[in-house]
Design a protein that fits this description.
single chain, about 200 residues, six-stranded mixed β-sheet, about 35% strand
């Protein structure tokens, strides 16, 4: 618990020097978006709780890391079962150079107007960090898992949380974000979502 709180405090301090907002919405199914790049500051309603692994990229990747303005994304392979939702966040290098991803990065649920929704991101090493090199046009993925069953003091009927129409995606070792649209609906457990590190699909 102490280790988790320390990691949480460090991430909040790292991200608190930046600004916020922006997003687009869509209906059901995967949609390629990622045209806007924004600077993200966690809102009061957002808790980012990383867990597992380290975000320190190998030294050789320091000058080649992919940044938000070079990426676009979509939600793919969505699946559902027993109150759980599963999907892959797929990011594609839209730049003209080769770049790298190492680690988990961050994300924040947003509503159809681009306002932040509660987000409780937990890192799960399935898989953990490995260096992913993306040539122009190549993609990497990140596994996502969230629930739609109310927990704690969330209402048993109606919406457990405000519906989310997309996510702001923050690449590893970056403070800028790009927006991916998807109809997540209400993410219960105060926006609890588990996310793997990026990997080559």
């Amino acid at each position: 618990m102490v280790r988790r709180m320390c990691v949480l405090a460090g991430l909040v301090l790292l991200m608190s020097a930046c600004g916020t907002e922006d997003q687009a919405s869509t209906g059901d199914g995967p949609t390629r978006t990622a045209t806007e790049t924004v600077t993200v500051t966690p809102s009061p309603s957002t808790t980012t709780a990383p867990d597992g692994g380290t975000e320190s990229a190998p030294p050789e990747a320091a000058d080649t890391k992919c940044v938000a303005m070079e990426l676009e994304g979509e939600i793919a392979n969505a699946d559902a079962g027993a109150g759980n939702r599963y999907a892959n966040l797929v990011v594609t290098n839209k730049s003209q150079r080769e770049c790298t991803l190492y680690g988990y990065g961050g994300l924040e649920f947003v509503d159809a107007d681009g306002n932040a929704n509660p987000t409780d991101l937990v890192r799960t090493p399935n898989p953990g960090p490995s260096l992913v090199t993306l040539a122009p046009g190549e993609s990497a993925a990140k596994k996502l898992h969230w629930g739609v069953v109310p927990t704690g003091d969330e209402p048993a009927t109606g919406r457990c949380q405000p519906p989310s129409a997309g996510i702001r995606v923050i690449p590893p070792d970056d403070t800028q974000a790009f927006v991916v649209s998807h109809d997540f609906g209400s993410v219960c457990g105060a926006g609890h979502v588990e996310g793997s590190a990026y990997f080559t699909p």
